[in-house]
Structures are given as C-alpha cells and as structure tokens.
Design brief:
The protein has about 425 residues and is of the alpha/beta class. It folds into 2 domains: about 290 residues, tm_1862 like domain (pyruvate-formate lyase- activating enzyme), CATH 3.80.30.20; about 55 residues, Arc Repressor Mutant, subunit A (Orthogonal Bundle). About 35% of the residues lie in helices and about 20% in strands. The protein has a 9-stranded mixed beta sheet, with helices on both faces. Strands 14-15-16 form a 3-stranded antiparallel beta sheet, with no helix packed on it. A hairpin with a 2-residue loop joins strand 11 and strand 12. Helix 2 runs parallel beside helix 3 and helix 6 packs parallel to helix 8. The two termini are about 20 Å apart.
Length: about 425
C-alpha cells in the first residue's frame, strides 16, 4: 500500500447555479439556475479519451486551519488572526494574472474546487467574491461543478446557506473517522456527534455531498473498519473518499512512528483493509472509480476526474499547483507556499507564481499515464499515444498483464486492483 502515488486532491459534491457569460468575458454566478447536469454517459472518456472533452478547472487554495492535524503534510497553517478580505483580494488578483496567461484562448470553466486548509473557515461573501472574479475572466459552463471542502468543526447552517447562494453546489466533508478516540488521536477538533450533525446539515443544504474517511489507523482491525464503513455507507452520500493513512515525512506522526510511539497496520493488514473497502463499496453501489474515490455512477467528482484525465487546471492561492496548455506547450505552475510570502508577492507583482515550467513531452506523457492509471477505467491507448507521440511497448504490457498488474484490450489499458496498490512500480515498468 505504501507505493500508492501521492494522495489525490480531495473531492465532495452538490447542486449549483450559474449561467454562462459572453464568450469574451465570463459568466455570472446565481442561485437560481437548474441543478448541474450529471456527468456524461459512461462511454465518455474516463482515461485518455478526446482531450477536448476533458474540460478546464480552477483550484483555489485556502491555507488556513483552526489546528494542524498531526498526519497532515498539506500546505495548511494556523494563524491567530486573518484579514480575510485581504487574502481574498490576493486570490482575485492571482486569478486575473493566470487568466492573462491564457489570453485569447480561455476555455469554459467546468469545475471549481476550494481546497485547503479549511475553506469552510471562509465567509460566504468571500466565496462569492472569488466565484465572481472567475466569472469575470472566463466563460463558465452552465453545469459547472463547484466544490468546497468543509471541516465538521466549522460547519454552520448560515454559512452553508451562504455558500449555496454564492454558487457552491458540492460539499466535501472531512469526517475522517467514526470513533471519538481515533478522531482525538488524529488531531481532529470534532467528535462523532458533531460530524453526524454536520453531515445532516450538509445533506439538507446541498444536493451533492461527499465524505472523507481515513482507514489503516493505529491498531485498527479489519472488523472495526468493516463496521465503520458499513455505518458510513448507510448515510447515503453519493460519493466517498476513503484514504489509507500514510506516514508523511516532517509530520508529528512521522516522529512518533520513528520512536515507536505510533504503530500503524502492516502492509498485509493495510492491503486487506483496502480489499475490504473495494468489496463493500462495490456491493453498496458506490464502486471505486479511482484508487481512493467511490461514487454512484454519474456522481464522480468531476474536478478530480479532470486531474486524473490529465486535463488543464489553474491553481491559485498559497502553494497551489496548476497544469496549463498554452499553444502546444504543457506548462506546470506553482505558487509560494508560505501564506505571508505569497501575499507579499501578490501585492507587489499581482501574483505569487514561483514556477512556470515547460514540461517536456516525455515527462508529460509519464504524468498523464500515472494519473490515468489511477482510474478504474484506465487510459485510452490510442488517444494517449496520439497526444504524446509515444508508443507503449506491447511486450511490457503483456508482462505486466501476466503478473496480474494490468488488463489490456485494443482500446483500454487499466491497472488491476493489485496493480493500483503498486502503481509507481507499474509506471516504471511501462516507461523506463
């Protein structure tokens, strides 16, 4: 299990309201438009597919949390005071700069994701200001998916209504555990009762809701996880993100693990927990569509699918990453991680991008393959090879298939459940 590629961006889901603007400017968010249309039929590309169908998204990073969880290596920071309007102003300025990079070729925005940190610490008018700035600079799809991550400890009925009115139509709730002792050990500020109350509130307010849970926690048994997952599935959310706990360097959990003060399940136990997860979600009608993400058919997180299909997305806010195609060139972007440095740079020059790097085709092809093979559907071989002018070697594919790590036919190449557990190894065997 420890060979899984870095955790994907989290995701959740809901109902929204937008209308597209004119082609030269952007759209205007409202709260009266119809619910977003479901994803295209299952025949639409889930791997490589027609790149024009992948879409374009925007990721907005809110870096602040009320407390730092000991397992977390995300770019999140605790501050006693936050000038929220100033931070939002910085995000708006950076959005304008990124839009300028695409000048003359701004695609319609299909997905927007507020991640963090804890975006549910933002006020509703701040979210509305960011969405308004996006609509001023880009055309916005009528069925745009707008996701916001929420911590149960900061769930609030009025704030949820404000998000809904601003245009958020999908909520991802970081429950993480359904056991008070484990929540405390994970450094969470909420208990199980608060998590359930926040979930009920979210499901009353939003049409699309996702929950996050972490498994392979210290001393967790297969029976305990089965009971917990059964309870989570009974909530009836259309989407679940179920992540294995990994010990990341430079976190308090890493220090505890080195000293022997923290013991997590061994690889065999973790693999068994993963297999239990796949079996139970499949039986409940929310099968895995990606290594750690499960949804009813048609309720997949579109924003995360955009990442895994290797589409284009802009990343704004401290520590945000992006992938843009400008002309024929694939470009990687990243911003200053430390919030104060990010804000100073934005005030000084209108953005805090520290990297705008052309990605060589060979590297882009490897990234694309790695992301696509996270998906249960896998990669469309012809589309992938055509896009990057590469040829996957049939002998290597055959060897991996013989070892039970890949399945392949004339169109699709997909990692098996076992192959997804050792995905880095599979990618190395295909490309090195």
């Amino acid at each position: 299990m420890n060979e899984l590629y870095a955790s994907p961006p989290p995701c959740g889901e809901v109902d929204l309201a937008t209308r597209s603007g004119d082609k030269s400017g952007g759209g205007q968010f409202s709260a009266t438009a119809p619910h977003p249309a479901p994803l295209r039929s299952p025949t639409s590309p889930q791997g490589g597919g027609d790149f024009a169908d992948v879409g374009f998204g925007i990721y907005v990073h809110w870096p602040f949390c009320a407390a730092k969880c000991p397992y977390c290596d995300f770019n999140s920071h605790v501050r006693s005071q936050i000038d929220e309007s100033a931070w939002v102003s910085g995000i708006v300025r950076e959005l304008r700069y990124v839009a300028g990079l695409q000048d003359g070729a701004r695609p319609p925005v299909q997905t927007i994701f507020f991640g963090g940190g804890t975006p549910s610490l933002m006020h509703g008018d701040s979210v509305a200001a960011v969405l308004g700035a996006i609509a001023e600079r880009w055309p916005v799809a009528r069925d745009v998916e707008v996701t916001l991550e929420s911590n149960p400890a900061s769930a609030d009925a009025q704030r949820f209504r404000d998000y809904r009115m601003a245009g958020v139509n999908r909520l991802s709730l970081g429950v993480q555990a359904l056991n008070d002792a484990d929540l405390k050990a994970l450094g969470r500020l909420h208990d199980v009762a608060e998590a359930k109350a926040a979930l009920a509130l979210a499901m009353r307010t939003f049409e699309r809701v996702s929950i996050d849970l972490i498994y392979a926690r210290p001393h967790q048994t297969a029976a305990q996880w089965r009971d917990e997952l059964r309870e989570a599935l009974a909530f009836g959310t259309e989407h679940l993100s179920l992540y294995q706990l990994t010990i990341e360097p430079a976190t308090p959990f890493a220090t505890l693990a080195r000293t022997g003060a923290l013991a997590i399940p061994d690889d065999d136990t973790a693999a068994a927990l993963y297999e239990t997860t796949q079996e139970m979600t499949e039986a409940a009608g929310v099968p895995a569509y990606e290594i750690s993400n499960h949804a009813r058919p048609g309720a997949e997180c579109r924003h995360n699918l955009l990442y895994w299909r290797y589409g284009d997305y802009a990343g704004v806010g401290p520590g945000a990453h992006g992938r843009l195609t400008i002309g024929d060139q694939r470009i990687a972007t990243s911003t200053e991680r430390l919030p104060e440095r990010w804000r100073e740079a934005v005030e000084r020059k209108g953005h805090a991008l520290i990297d705008q790097t052309n990605i060589p085709n060979a590297d882009a092809a490897r990234e694309h393959l790695l992301m696509n093979l996270r998906l249960t559907k896998g990669v469309d071989r012809a589309a992938y090879e055509s896009r990057w002018d590469v040829q996957l070697e049939p002998a290597r594919i055959a060897a991996l298939a013989a070892n039970g790590l890949l399945t392949a036919d004339d169109q699709w190449l997909a990692a098996t459940p076992h192959g997804r557990l050792v995905l880095n190894r599979v990618i190395a065997a295909l490309t090195n």
